[in-house]
């Protein structure tokens, strides 16, 4: 007797698959015998796509943040996302409060610890050197080793003030004390210059807002990917979309993709305002933009499942394999004309929308607004 059996799910490579779960883990995969029983069952009849649970690696979902906030379940399971990573909303001062709230969510919630102890209490959190307290950060990492899956440093002029590259140097010191700990670096307006930033990045680091349209972009004035970025990629740097309200340009993405510079990770940088008013709306909407840009469905799903799971050391999820967490996203491809808008208010016409139908976390199902019919799920 299993807890849940999902029958005739369609994977992104077109295969039909049965899945059984037990105690929150994947217990069996393949074609299950008809006699197999479960407390609950779901027959998708080959009409619904299923992948490992989606991971949004760049969100802002600490509900008490005074700057960027949202509810983890609103940007998580309600949109088909089974794991959300808050990217630096909290620092050492307030991460304990976030942990207490996250424990009550159905979505799996983790965070990147802001290098500044105050987190996003204000927009220039790295401008005062007194707020960069490495012992406090060390203590927070020690208290919450499972919740805190990496570090976050926002390296743009409005954030660092007169401190230039010093906060990044401090982040690398802290990272060196925790081998393998990922560091996500935000890029925006100069100073510091992008070349100076990426010269210091490599294996285990994630460059977010990789297709931003600001002057400090990954393209040089001639429209070619900067040599410093290419060199950092060879050292193991990962590119993260981090769409957000002001950090994604179709023009930049098209030029980079034409030069073979596809994103490793697709993330939303979502919070309540850009979820409700756009241009983000949901992780699925950002994913759909990359179908429009020419990525295959397999590439898009890889960028929200296995790659971010590996990058953030979430070893229990991101793949469909016996013994891993029973986290799945059920979705469909909806074909209708649609106008996509980037952060520069530049439009592109497309017709394929990735539409999440349900999120399953540890075997527990939550339907989205587009959810599968209730009669398909029965005891």
From TrEMBL:
Pfam families: Amidohydro_1
GO molecular function: dihydroorotase activity
EC class: hydrolase
Domain Amidohydrolase-related as annotated: residue spans: 77-339
Organism: Aeromonas schubertii
Name of the molecule in the record: Amidohydrolase/deacetylase family metallohydrolase
EC number: 3.5.2.3
Record field: transmembrane: none
Keyword terms, alphabetized: Hydrolase
Gene3D superfamilies noted in UniProt: Metal-dependent hydrolases, Urease, subunit C, domain 1
